[in-house]
Amino acid sequence: MRKLSLNLFYFLIPIILIIGIVPVNRRAKYVGLNDDCSSRGTWMHDRVYTNNTPTDIVFIGSSKTINGINDERINSALVNETVTNFGYCRFGRNLHHLLLRELLQQKQPKLLVLEIRESENRAGHPIFPFLSESKEAILPYPFFNKNVLKDIWRHLAYKVELLQEAIYSDETIEPIRSSNFGYLRVPGNANLADLNKNKLKMNSCKDKLTEFEENFHHHFAHHYLKKIAALCKKKKIELLLLNLPSYGNNRTNNQDFIRYKDYGRILLPPLEILDNQTNWFDVNHLNEQGAKQLSDWLSIELSAVIINN
Amino acid sequence: MKLNKWLAWPLVMGLVVLFWIPFRAESTSHLFEMTRSITDLSSYSIGTISTAIESYSMNRFVALIVVSILFLAVEWNMNLVNFSNWIEQKSNPVRVMNYYALLFSILILGNFTVKPSFIYFQF
Question: Which fold has domain A23-308?
């Protein structure tokens, strides 16, 4: 049995290596995500690689960032800076690190505003294996990402899928996206009962982790946060951490974010915005009105940061 | 009852394909709908078939036909040979090359669809 397993392993290595080495079109990787997160993949690729407009201030985060940060509005307020919302649905710090590296291939941002929230995601981002290079997908940082094997499979299968599309000339023809901004407007209001229920849930202590559990479960995320902070330092980008909690979260002072203090300055939006129930689309996302208020507040905060620099 | 092999092959193949349908159906009504659709002779016009192939991918369809013919030719030649016995008589490099050829056929023709589909809001 051991011999059979070893033979099988040696047999599969060349296949994995070949799939890993064969290059695929970079844009096709992003276009392949067209059914995901409002086709933001294609726009993000084009914003970085085909749109020559600079990106001085970049927001990276999840859908909370997509719906909460009106980059066009902040851009209008900060006359000399170009602001871009690079949020992507769902959580996972490895994707944020990958997006920052992609961005730095072409752009020279001055400020990176990274979303933080109640806690870190325990695993990597589900989109990471689709966009990453083969080396980092096949040999990922393993501690403690439960999706390691799933990510390896997804990466290899996606590459085979893209290679098949290239062989059979089945690639999706996708026009170049030329928009400078990534904010996604969500009108409408959250159900008040849902908001109140979430507030109770957020402030109950029963789900609190011990320090050991916190270190264990969030090690993977903090590994990538450290890498993001190191990359920003190397490229002379100021890193700001913007707290975008769910409705009802009552953490309002820097002491609650002690683990983040080494990475960069923390921005805590005022409670007048976060506590206003008419500012929410659902328990996790601000609506158009909330995004407007948050963006106006951010414009002032970012102006101060720029002046101080 | 013994059937002529030229009749038996397509008959068996057709029956196998038909007996797969219950396993593909999501419900009894879906099963009836699929059965009705497959027995609707008007849907077998050249126009509808070519539209179906085009929407699948003409290049993939041609590749599928070529590889199917290739496999049938191999099957024909090996007719009474036991594959296991046949491959065991070959040298190690030839065996490995055969396995790699099979694996590459799967990679080229297989369905590896893993593209994500995730919608946050229905606007």
Answer: Rossmann fold (3.40.50)
Domain residue ranges of chain A, discontinuous segments joined by +:
23-308
Ramachandran bin of A281, using left for φ above 0, alpha for ψ from -120 to 50, beta for the remaining angles: alpha
ipTM above 0.85, yes or no: no
How many other C-beta atoms can be found within 10 angstroms of the C-beta atom of residue B83? Answer: 11
Q: How many CA atoms lie within 13 A of A53 on its CB side?
A: 17
- Residues B77-104 have pLDDT tens digits of 776 677 788 888 889 899 999 889 889 9
CA-wise closest residue to A298 among A118, A113, A120: A113
Closest alpha carbon within chain B to A31: B115
**Mind listing the pLDDT tens digit for each residue in A35-49?**
999 999 999 999 999
Name the one residue in this structure whose structure tokens are 């959580």.
Answer: A91
Disruptive mutation site among B102, B115, B119, B123 for chain A (greatest number of A CBs within 10 Å): B115
Find, in chain A, the residue whose alpha carbon is nearest to that of B104.
Answer: A15
